[in-house]
Amino acid sequence: MFTGIIEEMGIIQEIKRTGDSFILTIGADKIMDDIHLGDSIAINGVCLTVTSYTNNQFSVDVMPETVKATSLVALTRGSKVNLERAMAAGGRFGGHFVSGHVDGTGTIITKKKVENAVYYEIETDKEMLKYIILRGSVAVDGTSLTVFGVSENGFTLSIIPHTLSETVLGLKSKGDIVNIECDMLGKYVSHFLVNATVNSAKKSLGITEAFLEENGFK
Fold it and tell me: Domains, the chain, ranges and CATH?
């Protein structure tokens, strides 16, 4: 579990490709103070497992399904990535619940500076948009953000200078692909409501006169 508060930006040192999967080796500083084999690290919002590490870098395996569902395939040597360790039980919770299980990707279609903020309009598919609400939370490349506007094809973010300087979002431009994780609580509520509606509809059918006639009871 993560919070969407990025700890630092790491740098891709090496990419070893093996068919549809690959191994990433990432240079980092701050998060190396407390890292262990098997730890979960969110890399641009994607929860991955530490398989090896040294004093200044660590490696993770990226499976074919993760390659297909996220923007990690676009990384190259030298790319900067957002890094966040799994949340500590006793720490402050400054963002929102982020699982690191990316729902899909979106495309930046506009980037516009407005006074001290920068507006990003991100286009994504309608399946994800049903979980994105005005002033709700969304994780973009692992960064916890508040939705500023919602349209038929996407949503808008208003990002402050600190976030732009401390995360890879400041390096992104029109046309770039970003990872999106919708609000976990919203997804669960939607799932429960849909199931409750379906189950209620089934129960309402019950044993009717028509049902009895169709099954030989006249």
Answer: 8-85 (2.40.30.20), 104-197 (2.40.30.20)
